[in-house]
Amino acid sequence: MLQQIADFAPNAVERERALKWLTFIESHIEGWPFGGENHLKAHWCRTLLLALNIADGEGFCEADREVLAAAAAFHDTRRKNAWPDQGHGARGALYYEEFCRERGLAFDPRVVQVMAWHDCDDSDGIEAIRAWEETHPELRPEGCASAVELYLAFKDADGLDRVRLALNVEMDVNSEYWRFALDPNYLRLETSKNLIPLAKELLAASQGLGAARAQGDDAPPQPFLVVVDVQNDFVTDALGTAEAQAALPAMVKKVREFDGQVVFTKDTHDDRYMETQEGKNLPVPHCLVGTRGWELVDELDAFQREHNLPVYLKGTFGSTDLMRDIVTAYARGKVASVEFIGLCTDICVISNAMLVKAALPQLAVSVDAACCAGVTPALHDAALAAMASCQIAVK
Fold first, then answer.
1. CB within 8 A of 109, min separation 6: which ones?
2. Per-residue model confidence as pLDDT tens digits over 15-46
3. Global pTM value
4. Are 105 and 271 in contact (CB under 8 A)?
5. Rounded to an integer, what distance in angstroms lies between the CA atom of residue 10 and that of residue 54?
6. Buried b (16+ CB within 10 A) or exposed e, 9-27
7. What value, to the nearest 5°, has the Cα angle with vertex 261 and ends 255 and 264?
8. pLDDT per residue over 264-295, tens digit each?
9. What is the largest distance, in Å, between two alpha-carbon atoms of the chain?
């Protein structure tokens, strides 16, 4: 849930920076899968937010915060396995350099130093980075922290997310098991040590545990309603349709009256949209993070904010984060059924419904046809027929 993760930024300015980089990670970075779930996108995103909180506490400048954000985005993208794998930092740094050169991302050589040595002992990293700084003093912008200071801050951000390792043992973030996942004595900065409670809360939010926890272990399973991409750009703006506008009142009524857990998705892109595969096939920039078109329509935005409901940002048609969180809640006995509504029936509604049905074939999955709209009426009908063929109930 990238929007919830961004809420862990230390202030409004850093939240915007977090959203920018979270969207970049979602839409543009291609990581090797060999590091396992503990080292993939969710970890990169949490490390990003922890790094921004450390940077704020240490008073780092704007350029330094961008260095830490870039390092968080790329640092574990080139793992060969889930174990120590010394060398993955250097491989990630090379991927960062290639990405900047080939795709126009602003390059900062300090990112390379921070990443390349983050999987090494502090003594080795500090010695190598200090030697590099002494020979390249011109590469440290005026008023910025040294690359060694950034290196230590980044290693703390990466280390703070070791709280995730306790999930394999015990869900309770207040249990003694957490000390096996994170030893505060290994953190380097006092700022970082003060962020341990935040790291635990961030983990819970990013794993989608909040709603399931709130029910309590004895609470019965409840129906889920997934509201897919009911954003201004799909209703009235860049890609709006008369059919979406006609279906909107029914969607709003459904959400307001639903007796169960409501979650939202938001299609999310950045200013590099036209470079993506989607942008090449649909050359209409839309749902750019931070714009009005990206926001939920007013009625649903107000409802989401009033009830603090989960929102999943996604740079692709189907949200694997949403699917995994529903699987997690289902495994804990918290999901009775999942119903989908929203836009567009033939693209993102069907993609998300199929993901959930494939992951949980015995779960009752449905779609409310009157609360959906497709790119065209014909495509709407075709998508409903395809879902029905896959045993997704069409209401």
1. 136, 139
2. 999 999 999 998 899 899 888 878 888 899 99
3. 0.79
4. no
5. 9
6. bbeeebbebbbbbbbbbbb
7. 60
8. 999 999 999 998 999 999 999 999 998 999 99
9. 68
- Pair 108, 93: CB distance under 8 Å: no
**What is the phi/psi pair of residue 113, to 5°?**
-65, -45
Question: pLDDT digit string (tens) for 133-190?
Answer: 999 999 999 999 999 999 999 999 999 999 887 644 444 445 544 445 788 888 999 9
Whole-angstrom distance, CA of residue 391 vs CA of residue 150: 52
Q: Identity (one letter) of the amino acid at 225?
A: L
- Distances 353 to 249, 336, 356 between C-alpha atoms, Å: 22, 15, 5
Residue 337's SS3 state is strand
Amino acid present at 170: E
Tokens (6 digits) for 384? 């409903």
In whole angstroms, give the CA distance from residue 76 to residue 32: 9
What one-letter code names the amino acid at 238? Answer: A
Whether omega for the bond prior to residue 120 falls within 30 degrees of 0, making it cis, is no
- Measured CA to CA, the distance from residue 38 to residue 44 in angstroms comes to 10
- Which amino acid, residue 137? P
User: Cα–Cα distance between 227 and 391 in angstroms, integer?
Assistant: 20
Residue 344 to residues 121, 241, 365: CA-CA distances in angstroms? 50, 10, 17
**Sheet-wide strand order for 261-267:** 311-314, 261-267, 222-228, 335-343, 364-373, 393-394
Q: What is the pLDDT of residues 71-122, one digit of tens each?
A: 999 999 999 998 889 999 999 999 999 999 999 999 999 999 999 999 999 9
Distance CA(301)–CA(298), nearest Å, equals 5
The amino acid present at 206, given as its one-letter code, is S
